[in-house]
Amino acid sequence: MDSERKFSLIELLVVITIISILVSILLPSLSKARKKMRQTHCLNNQKQVMLCISLYTTENNDWYPLAIYYQFDLEPYARGQYKDFSSWMSSPYKGTIFECIENPNLGEAINSWVGGIGMNYEYMGFTEHSPTSPRQKVMSIDEPAETIMIGDSDYDKAWNLKYIYAPLNTAGFTPDLSIRYQMHGKGANYGWVDGHVSMESRSKILNGKNSSANWYFKREK
Q1: CA atoms of 9 and 11, how far apart (whole Å)
Q2: What is the distance between the alpha carbons of residues 221 and 219, in angstroms, rounded to a whole number?
Q3: Tell me, what's the pLDDT at 146?
Q4: Does pTM surpass 0.85?
Q5: What residues form DSSP beta bridges with 6?
Q6: Checking DSSP bridges between strand 197-201 and strand 117-119, what pairing results, if any?
Q7: Nearest to residue 205, comparing CAs of 134, 151, 125, 161?
Q8: Residues near 74 by Cβ (< 8 Å), separated by ≥ 6?
Q9: What are the backbone dihedrals phi and psi of residue 137, each rounded to the nearest 5 degrees, phi first?
Q10: Under a CB-based contact definition with an 8 Å cutoff, are residues 103 and 115 in contact?
Q11: Fewest CB within a 10 Å sphere: which of 96, 139, 153, 183?
């Protein structure tokens, strides 16, 4: 009977080389698939947030929530756990529908209420009776399919992570344009006033439409 055949050193090196080549080919695909999965997870969260906003408007005479504490306004339709403001302020949003898992500040104790999905505060309303960004009503938005309600807030300051800013917003506390609108690679997720959600490229959002850079945030009247 022939003795059991053993791999030679050359054969072993060939096998290792082939495996290395296969790994180098597969790793980029696996990384791309992982990024797509995370982007889809975030998009699904925004779908649920938009559903909560729809429920809110139905029960509040067609008024939209205000950006400053919109997560708290939507709490009864989302988690339903926190009925008082102080409890909500210390509640975590990691693992909830208000979470974007690409948010580097997610889970920080001091900013536990910041999930990374921000609201278009300039156009949709920042605070009650604000002279510059008052609360909006359903019928007051004339282009709902092209008006952003919420979106990924890929900003460098944690407290900014619950707001999204229009391209022409150049106030000193807003992030530089170089880091906006690209939480997921070349773009970000958005929930639109008409209820649909979508992934949009950074260039589309940054350039706007009809010669208006702010078209999707605060359109010219």
Answers
A1: 5
A2: 6
A3: 95
A4: no
A5: none
A6: unpaired
A7: 151
A8: 49, 52, 53, 56, 65
A9: -110, 155
A10: yes
A11: 139
3-state class (DSSP) for residue 72: helix
What is the CA angle 94-103-26, rounded to 5? 105
Look at residues 217, 214, 170 and name the one whose alpha carbon lies nearest to residue 190: 217
Q: Is the dihedral of CA 103, 82, 73, 126 positive or negative?
A: negative
Asked if 45 contacts 99 with a C-beta cutoff of 8 angstroms, the reply is yes
Whole-angstrom CA distances from 143 to 63, 139, 174, 221 are 16, 10, 26, 11
Each residue of 133-155: b (16+ CB within 10 Å) or e?
bebbeeeebeeeeebbbbbbbbb
Q: Which residue has the tokens 């975030």?
A: 42
Q: CB-based contacts of 31: which residues, under 8 Å, 6+ apart?
A: none
Strands 117-119 and 187-192: unpaired
Distance CA 118, CA 114 (A): 9
What band does 221 get if pLDDT is binned at 50, 70 and 90?
very low
What is the chain's mean pLDDT, rounded?
A: 85
